[in-house]
Amino acid sequence: MIQMRPSDTTGYLRINELKNYLYCPRISFYTLCMSMDRITHLAELGIEAEADAKQRLRRRQHALHSITRGIRHFNVTLWSEMNQIIGQIDEVVETATGIYLVDYKDTQKDYGYWQVQMAAYALCAAECMKLPVAGCSIYAIPDMVYHPISVTLAVRKKLLRTLTAIRELLRTELCPPAVTVKGKCRSCQYARFCNDVF
To answer: Which of 3, 15, 122, 138 could make a disulfide contact with 133, Cβ separation 3.0–4.6 Å?
Structure first.
């Protein structure tokens, strides 16, 4: 059972910000420090793909092949007062043995943030739903495959380090160095603001 949502979430970090920071810290700088929240046509297509996938998956009797009995909840807001983070996960499956968390992605490629993002959802779910997290999965829309995500102690430590780094970015408001993988810049909605990259 989800507890009553905190009345004031001022200062809470969005769980999606972990994805931004781990892809490129400058995205977090532009969104959090400069209030520039840009959405590209590519991102809009991804949002549409996720919405379509949700409609299709709602009609399926079971969310995961390994789960035969469970109550499915969609677009569930999860939060942690202790860690001051909040986010909306695409699906929570409630079973007799615990809950399963499912997040939908419009790509089958993990850019290095799937585990950390799922660790954040798991941390929040355990706190605000008061139920054990039995498993985490990413549903990749392009290949229609569930990818199990392991939330290890090392991943949880990385989550806490990343949250600390984002909060330090907010405190200093200093633009981070550019990423070394320049291929990331080609599809970035903030590429034209990074004049030092190309």
So the answer is: 122
**What count of residues does the chain have?**
198
Q: Angle 125-99-149 (CA atoms, 0-180°, nearest 5)?
A: 80
Beta bridge partners of 72: 93
Q: Kindly report the pTM of this predicted structure.
A: 0.86
Asked if residue 149 lies in contact with residue 103, where contact means CB atoms within 8 angstroms, the answer is no
β-sheet bridge partners, residue 140: 105, 145
Residue 147: domain span:
48-174
Whether 90 maps to a domain, the answer reads: yes
pLDDT digits (tens, 9 = 90+) for 104-134: 998 888 888 999 999 999 999 999 999 999 9
Q: Which of 57, 88, 61, 65 is nearest to 135 (CA)?
A: 65
Gap between the Cα atoms of 88 and 39, Å rounded: 18
Q: Where do the H-state alpha helices sit in the chain?
A: 16-23, 25-28, 41-58, 114-128, 153-172
